[in-house]
Amino acid sequence: LTPAIGPQGHVPHAAEACLACICRTDPPTPNAAQPELDAASIRQALEGSLRRLRTTYIDLYQLHWPNRYAPLWGARQYDLAAAQSWPKVADMEEQVATIGELIKEGKIRYWGLSNETTFGVCRMVEIAKRLGVPPPISIQNDFSLCYRYFEGEWPAGDARLDPGPDQHILEGKGAGCL
């Protein structure tokens, strides 16, 4: 997984250089979009990753960090002043539509979310359903023995999405949580 953060972009490039040496038949290649998360930035980040990885598609593409204020990293209270002072908020519909285009173009196979709130996941899934885009298949959130907030928050969101009998929006081991 190439993270969206790192000392001046060096970490993603180093990881991608190592992965580029692996034959394409080896394990799937996950990747993450850079922080801006508007359509142009998502496409630019993806094209750069495809070029550095010397591949034509990414198996799992993560939208890494919401591009809006969200109470993360231990903050449990929503701070309205912080939300209102956020400099630029990318449109979730634009993000999902861009992901749908990239899937149709064959540049990504699946997508997921990282460091996203239950609200953000539910909103993205609702938009994906409305636009006819496959929903995210994974979420990678802050979770540890000491910080288990997401464990209690997620089931309410999953139930609210009403995916149908015996289905969860984020399928797989740990309900799709990485």
From TrEMBL:
It holds the Pfam family Aldo_ket_red. Residues 33-146 form the NADP-dependent oxidoreductase domain. GO terms for molecular function: oxidoreductase activity. This is Aldo keto reductase.
